[in-house]
Structures are given as structure tokens and as C-alpha cells.
Amino acid sequence: MANLPAMVFAESSCSGIQVTIPNIKNSTGAVACALFESSSGFPTEFLHSATNIVMIKIRDTQARCNFLDIPPGTYALAVIHDENKDGKLGTNFLGVPTEGYGFSNGAEASMSAPSFEAARFSYDGQNLDLTIRLTY
User: Fold this and answer.
1) What is the residue-wise DSSP string for 25-49?
2) Which of 17, 40, 41, 106 would give a disulfide with 45, using CB separation of 3.0 to 4.6 Å?
């Protein structure tokens, strides 16, 4: 009986979406992971429109964002390497990003950011592991 509480705690864990960001250019600043449940504000207005936002420090050019207790649904992720920690994706005078960025579902930016539809994925409420590689 003394082992019962340990077994109960070992089995109880929140399911969620775990996002691994490997091969970050450097360990300066932080990574911001923004989870969206609709196209509203995706991906540029993450501070106002994202369902959940995780800011995480970079360790050894890698980061991992965990979104726990997320209901099943359709989502899209936008990730930025916020090197100067100003809370937004840095761009040059032409609007070209100067910091790393990436999106779920392998969505790519060409002349503009990808659409929510290009980056969307289905989440069934169980554990989901995603990897997002940043573009610089």
C-alpha cells in the first residue's frame, strides 16, 4: 500500500502538444510559440490573437514548448526566435524577417506568411509531438 500513491502520480499526466525546435541559430534571446485555433490574426498578431503563447529560454540551440490541457480541435502554430526579446519578429526596412521563424505542418513563407489553412493540424486531445525547424 505504501507504493500506491507513487503509482497513481506516475500515471496521471496532462496530455498536450509538445513542440521541439532544434538547430536554433544561437542561444540568444528566447523562442515564442503561439498556438492559434482560427485564422484570426495568424500568424502576425500572436500577442492579441493566439489561443496560447509559450515563451521559453533557448538551451544549447534547442527549445521545447509544451501546451498542456488543450481541447481537441484544429490548430496552427507559429514559432519565432526572438533574439532581442522585444516580443515580435524582427524585420528589415523591406519587411524581410531578420529573426528565425517557423510554422506547423511544414508551412513555408514565400512572399508573405503562410495561411492558417497551410499550417493547420488536427489535435485529438492525446499527446502530440511536433518538430518545427526555423528559417533564417
Assistant:
1) S-SSSEEEEEEESSSTTTTTTHHHH
2) 41
